[in-house]
């Protein structure tokens, strides 16, 4: 029998508590690999249910300015896929929090999709989200990833029509990432009421958990989204916090406390 993926187990546990997952995003290597190692431990201590670990890329077209800057800083410090996988190995020594690698296909293509899938699994990665790899073109990575036991997470947006939803659902695993707005990450605040209606409509076609990201910046916003989403994804707000505190000895503690506050928000929603 195939062992359950950590992502599946995570959502099952939270569903039993009627609780939404908190999913923070970190750019691997920002401000450097050593601090990322500390930040990964900090977000686990703070209450992260699942982690999106960003793979830096030179042309991150789906990302807003904050995450673009973080990718640039990480690349300048020599971050690579092998170093990122080693970060996952080190994190796995202390934590079983699911990890999804979030990035673009070019670095994976150059690494070799089959070798990457095997190495990612062996490092302790649970899923992949490749933003520029639509399901119709994903088989080169999707097939070896699934053979390795990795879940492929895909994006859906307010502009996704029913045919796009069907295409995604044929291959999606773990959860579906619903982009709460058009545009890039961190570009504007979430309109909760409108997103709630769109998520309710998406559930008619989607049997997987639905995570909502883009525009969630505060614990109160996290609580509002957690009322109707299976996961609350927070990226740019965390990346900006790291940027604003880079070089400060208080950085790791401030990130941990912010994660803790966000998690309190998602738990508060479960009590509503």
Short structural description:
With 272 residues, the protein is α/β, with parallel strands linked by helices.
What would you say this structure looks like, in words?
It is a single chain. With 272 residues, the protein is α/β, with parallel strands linked by helices. The chain has a single domain (21-266), classed as TIM Barrel, CATH 3.20.20.70. Helices cover 50% and strands 14% of the residues. The chain has helices at 6-16, 33-46, 65-76, 81-92, 105-111, 113-123, 139-147, 162-171, 192-202, 219-226, 236-244, 251-271, and strands at 21-27, 51-54, 99-103, 127-130, 151-156, 176-179, 210-213, 231-234. The protein has an eight-stranded parallel beta barrel with strand order 1-2-3-4-5-6-7-8, surrounded by eight helices. The radius of gyration is 17 Å and the shape is globular. Mean pLDDT is 93; it is low at 183-187.
What share of residues are in beta strands? 5-15%
Can you give the mean pLDDT? 93
Name the CATH class: Alpha Beta
Second-tier CATH architecture: Alpha-Beta Barrel
CATH superfamily: Aldolase class I
List the helices and strands and how they pair.
Elements: H1 6-16, E1 21-27, H2 33-46, E2 51-54, H3 65-76, H4 81-92, E3 99-103, H5 105-111, H6 113-123, E4 127-130, H7 139-147, E5 151-156, H8 162-171, E6 176-179, H9 192-202, E7 210-213, H10 219-226, E8 231-234, H11 236-244, H12 251-271
Parallel strand pairs: 1-2, 1-8, 2-3, 3-4, 4-5, 5-6, 6-7, 7-8
Helix pairs in contact: 2-4, 2-12, 4-6, 6-7, 10-12
């Amino acid at each position: 029998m195939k062992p359950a993926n950590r992502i599946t187990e995570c959502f099952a546990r939270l569903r039993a508590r009627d609780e939404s997952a908190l999913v923070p995003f970190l750019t691997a290597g920002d401000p450097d690999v050593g601090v990322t190692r500390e930040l990964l431990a900090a977000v686990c201590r703070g209450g992260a249910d699942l982690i999106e670990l960003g793979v830096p890329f030179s042309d991150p077209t789906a990302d807003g300015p904050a995450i673009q800057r973080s990718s640039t800083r990480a690349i300048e410090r020599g971050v690579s896929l092998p170093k990122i996988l080693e970060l996952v190995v080190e994190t796995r020594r202390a934590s079983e929090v699911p990890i999804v690698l979030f990035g673009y296909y070019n670095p994976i293509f150059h690494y070799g999709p089959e070798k990457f899938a095997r190495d990612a699994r062996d490092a302790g990665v649970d899923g992949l989200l490749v933003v520029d790899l639509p399901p119709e073109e994903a088989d080169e990575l999707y097939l070896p990833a699934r053979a390795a036991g990795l879940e492929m997470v895909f994006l859906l947006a307010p502009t996704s029509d029913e045919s796009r939803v069907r295409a995604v659902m044929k291959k999606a695993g773990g959860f579906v990432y619903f982009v709460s707005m058009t545009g890039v990450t961190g570009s504007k605040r979430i309109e909760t009421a409108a997103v709630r209606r769109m998520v309710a409509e998406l559930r008619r076609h989607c049997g997987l958990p639905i995570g909502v990201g883009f525009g969630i910046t505060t614990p109160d916003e996290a609580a509002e989204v957690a009322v109707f989403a299976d996961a609350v994804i927070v990226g740019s707000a965390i990346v900006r916090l790291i940027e604003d505190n880079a070089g400060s000895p208080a950085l790791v503690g401030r990130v941990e406390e912010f994660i803790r506050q966000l998690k309190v928000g998602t738990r508060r929603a479960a009590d509503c």
